[in-house]
Design a protein that fits this description.
Strand order of the largest sheet: 2-1-3
Distance between the termini: 28 Å
Number of strands: 5
Number of helices: 4
Number of domains: 2
Radius of gyration: 27 Å
Order of helices and strands: EEHEHEHEH
Largest sheet: 3 strands, antiparallel
Shape: elongated
């Protein structure tokens, strides 16, 4: 995909458009299928566009990268805390959550596992407290 800045020679309107390849623009231009969205003129030409490049030397980007790393570290710490202090019940989360909720005895530990958004919604409608935890993979990529 390639994005061009197009200019109407009649009304001087500038607009962007995406094309599958540079040849596609030429083909559509020849078939008179490119027109100005304002005045509908076919007198439209492409102009140079600067590419969008990520400049990691800018302070804003460095700050964003640092924030991302901080959030990722906090999520990893949170995951470690959950693994150490809760019982993993896997795909049986919905069943176990209902069992604990309707059982009169208080459990020693909370549970965590997998459930669909539909199941979580149903548990909440029943008054069963649940939270969705952003879970990151163990790899360091």
């Amino acid at each position: 995909m390639i994005k061009y800045l197009l200019k109407c020679k009649n009304c001087h309107n500038e607009f962007e458009s995406w094309f599958g390849a540079s040849e596609e623009y030429d083909k559509l231009k020849k078939l008179k299928l490119i027109n100005c969205p304002d005045c509908e003129s076919l007198n439209v030409e492409k102009s140079l566009m600067s590419p969008n490049l990520l400049n990691t030397k800018k302070k804003g980007n460095v700050s964003d990268i640092k924030k991302f790393k901080d959030v990722k570290k906090k999520l990893a710490d949170y995951k470690k805390f959950v693994k150490e202090n809760f019982d993993y019940v896997g795909e049986n989360f919905t069943y176990k959550a209902r069992s604990l909720h309707y059982d009169k005895k208080k459990p020693k530990k909370g549970i965590y596992g997998s459930a669909s958004l539909k199941d979580i919604k149903e548990l909440r409608e029943e008054g069963i407290e649940t939270d969705i935890i952003p879970w990151i993979d163990d790899d360091k990529n």
